[in-house]
Amino acid sequence: MTAIHIQEIASIVQTGRVLTDESDRFSYSFDGSFGTYLPDIVIQTKSVEELAELVKYANREKIPVYPRGQATSLSGGPLPVKGGMVIDLSVMDDLLEIDEEDLVAVVSPGVLTAHIHKAAEAKGLMYPPDPSSSHVSTIGGNLAENSGGPRGLKYGVTKDYVIGLEMITPQGEIIRTGGRTVKNVTGYDLTKLIVGSEGTLGIITKAILRLIPKTPASETVMAVFDSLVDAGKAISQILSSGILPSKMELMDQASMVAVENYQPSGLPLDADAMILIELDGHPMAVRDEAEQVSKVCKAAGAREVRVPQTKEEQEDVWKARKLVSPAIARIKPTKISEDATVPRSKIPEMCRRLQQIKEKYRLHLVVFGHAGDGNLHPNIIADKSDKEEMLRVEQAVAEIFEAAVELGGTLSGEHGIGTMKAPFMEMELGAAGLDMMKRIKEAWDPNNIMNPGKIFPEPGQKLVLSE
Amino acid sequence: MTAIHIQEIASIVQTGRVLTDESDRFSYSFDGSFGTYLPDIVIQTKSVEELAELVKYANREKIPVYPRGQATSLSGGPLPVKGGMVIDLSVMDDLLEIDEEDLVAVVSPGVLTAHIHKAAEAKGLMYPPDPSSSHVSTIGGNLAENSGGPRGLKYGVTKDYVIGLEMITPQGEIIRTGGRTVKNVTGYDLTKLIVGSEGTLGIITKAILRLIPKTPASETVMAVFDSLVDAGKAISQILSSGILPSKMELMDQASMVAVENYQPSGLPLDADAMILIELDGHPMAVRDEAEQVSKVCKAAGAREVRVPQTKEEQEDVWKARKLVSPAIARIKPTKISEDATVPRSKIPEMCRRLQQIKEKYRLHLVVFGHAGDGNLHPNIIADKSDKEEMLRVEQAVAEIFEAAVELGGTLSGEHGIGTMKAPFMEMELGAAGLDMMKRIKEAWDPNNIMNPGKIFPEPGQKLVLSE
């Protein structure tokens, strides 16, 4: 990018800020994943029209454009890997409107997801997607990556709640997709194509989200197992007993040990696995369902089943699950969070494979996650300054992906492809499937300005963590 | 199409049938909408490989390809408007596998949707999408059109339950999208792009459908109103009271009169509107919710509220709703079924507009439909041999679309665009939005062989019903 570029960009951005100092730009060089890449310029503006002009300019001058929220991404979505222009959408946080009659929220991309939860709940409504990062991540980032979360089991993911978008195309046109109706089959579903496209198809500047009535009550069941396979069986049997829990989370022994070392919570360290089940709905229904779930867990071999009786006890149980991520981050400085997802029936087999990979590469691997929908989170804890260890991590990550795909699963359940998983795309999709995706990208963004270097592997690209 | 074409096509189809007799082809010239178009050739084969070869051949020779299920489409989806080749996928009905552990159904496109309902229920599971045609329509057709139904209010539409597809691309490649996991963010969501694309992007040859546990109980509430506006208010208030019914259906006075004339059912003919509400879930929860809903309806001005006490009484109430379509079809020979959908808050206003359109054009217009999600079904009953009347129908249909879009709604909630709504696409989407859809079509199907003449308007195309 030349000095003239910077000058012309500054002349487009009348109402916002243009950052070019190295120290400012450095703050935008990393995300929640791996690697740092310095952008040439950073833009903050609340004006959609200015953004559209910027994209038109970038398209003409072939400057890479990297939209970004709070950059909590675990897959490298916002990393400016080719330099160019970062658009900081976290400043676009003015609009958060709850319409109780239409049951929708209309939001600008910089609004924190937790603020949407709160605003909806204040009106007796609920925005179900609940990525663990919701208190720090923006809805724009959630939309770009199609974020999931524990409640995905019953309620689905971000995409299932987006019914309309305003977006800037890679040519700088402002388009609107979908609308305020839940049913809409007018033409191709651009809304659901754009959500989860990781910023490669345009910049989302507004979203219309579907809300549902808030569930009036919830109950929690905690079940401890001496065998991970039995825990897997209990999960299947609960789901086929006519009950659909709102959450069903798994913690393996290594994650319980990590939590106990971080903050003692009375977890059963000699057990192989623990599952936490949340039931939500009508107060009478959830009490009865909690009893049924307890029976199923006991029949499946649980050595202990507990139903917390107070709100405080419930919160304590869930707190242990939430502590897994910070707890394991303390073990070693580098945490590689994967989200390989397998069909539910393959959870025990996937756990076995992960165990083998852990032993084969002598790594600190912890398994926890959203077991009810097969969305496991194998996390490898390492030290990026130890090149020999990182080489083993590279190999282990590749084998995790291979195992997931071999078992009929997917590279990513909710974190996205970004940079790290791009080299493995063809393994899952096949050459023809990947080609159909590329055709959409090329048709919409022929100059490849929107988030270049993401999703699609470059020729010969390999996963490299050891540099 | 030449004799050589027909000969070469016949040589590709080794295991199936090739129909060229005019009487056979005539059976494939119409659907549940308007108009007849004779195809040149009709293919029936269960072999995906043969189909892929056929599409490769058609792409090379630029022959239009029209995939088709049972052709119950109300928007012209399967009509072979440019002649060419019809692919009768109703014969591909062999695969209907319910996997209780993964909570999925794997189906071939020719399976009737009602058979999927039955197979899932036999294993304690549920496939929620329930288009009214489910006993006669194929899942392939439901996938192509992204069919809805009354349960869309709580459970969403077809697209919300499709997690994987096998598809033949317009170049004759067989690709697989998604898989057996509910969460999958590996690349662009081709699954949700293809579902609802009305056969314009390829031929679906297999689908993986998400199932949920079957709800154990249901209750029905019937509420009669002297004012349509009060009925609309009741609908809003139920939804904001923390209850999400599985169905919430509206019948206006004209539809009640039609039903009574067709099959006397004791409907309150002097009332302005009736709403039928179904609650499903835990037995204790639905009983309590039925009481709450009854109270809300009374407070909103219902003159009568009834909760049927037996299974038989429940069925009788819902039967009246199901009779609307056949009842109005008997009034005059030509039924134009629309599915303009508006934001929930605009239902009373849309009803007012429809009343004005009815009076302005002196037409027999009946309003009923899925009021809970704003998906109304204004049906015009006419006689296509009466050209003067059909001219008025054309104008009325155009005004219905305009009203829906003006109120922030959409041309189509669940029937699709097909041929009839194509001229109105730009009104809803804008030129830039429509252009982004066209780019996908052109990138995937540069020779425009897949279901040509659908969705995208041809230059100057207008709605013509009066020819």
Automatic annotation (TrEMBL), chains A, B:
<dbReference type="Pfam" id="PF02913">
    <property type="entry name" value="FAD-oxidase_C"/>
</dbReference>
<dbReference type="Pfam" id="PF01565">
    <property type="entry name" value="FAD_binding_4"/>
</dbReference>
<feature type="domain" description="FAD-binding PCMH-type">
    <location>
        <begin position="35"/>
        <end position="214"/>
    </location>
</feature>
<dbReference type="InterPro" id="IPR016164">
    <property type="entry name" value="FAD-linked_Oxase-like_C"/>
</dbReference>
<dbReference type="InterPro" id="IPR016166">
    <property type="entry name" value="FAD-bd_PCMH"/>
</dbReference>
<keyword id="KW-0285">Flavoprotein</keyword>
<dbReference type="InterPro" id="IPR051914">
    <property type="entry name" value="FAD-linked_OxidoTrans_Type4"/>
</dbReference>
<dbReference type="InterPro" id="IPR006094">
    <property type="entry name" value="Oxid_FAD_bind_N"/>
</dbReference>
<dbReference type="GO" id="GO:0016491">
    <property type="term" value="F:oxidoreductase activity"/>
</dbReference>
<dbReference type="InterPro" id="IPR036318">
    <property type="entry name" value="FAD-bd_PCMH-like_sf"/>
</dbReference>
<dbReference type="InterPro" id="IPR016169">
    <property type="entry name" value="FAD-bd_PCMH_sub2"/>
</dbReference>
<dbReference type="InterPro" id="IPR004113">
    <property type="entry name" value="FAD-bd_oxidored_4_C"/>
</dbReference>
<protein>
    <submittedName>
        <fullName>FAD-binding protein</fullName>
    </submittedName>
</protein>
<dbReference type="GO" id="GO:0071949">
    <property type="term" value="F:FAD binding"/>
</dbReference>
<comment type="similarity">
    <text>Belongs to the FAD-binding oxidoreductase/transferase type 4 family.</text>
</comment>
<keyword id="KW-0274">FAD</keyword>
<keyword id="KW-0560">Oxidoreductase</keyword>
<dbReference type="InterPro" id="IPR016171">
    <property type="entry name" value="Vanillyl_alc_oxidase_C-sub2"/>
</dbReference>
